[in-house]
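Practice problem: predict the structure.
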Amino acid sequence: MKKPTPKRPLTPAESARAADWVHLVAPVVRLYARKRALPAYLDPETLESHGLVGLMDASRLWTNAGKPESDWRSYAKGRIKAGLIDGLRLEDKKTRAQMRREAAGESVVREVSDPVATDGSSFIASVAGSSEPSDIEIKDELANAKVKLKGRV
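Answer:
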């Protein structure tokens, strides 16, 4: 995933606008969290911090041009939700294809790369979904890893 570009600091006027409207963040975050199945490791403070980033973006990007306050409120709510979604995507390491498979009810096995494997294969991923490896299989895998490590030195 592409890393976000650094943003310029808020001007005093933009900062004041964001401070005046910070009360919008909690309701938007609660509504979003209620409608989505979010991972259990996310706490409300993390979600609100992503929402605050969205509010600061809204304040930074808003051009007044004589528009009414109701337009700002709608714009800010949309940017808060976008900041929340962006933050959640940055924290989640799954690909979109994996998320689609999970949503469809398919099992997704994440491959864990073996630090000693040189060919990109993984012992853990190869036995995922099967029964636990036997002691002999573990012994053989450790012996192979030892040989590979000796070959690197």
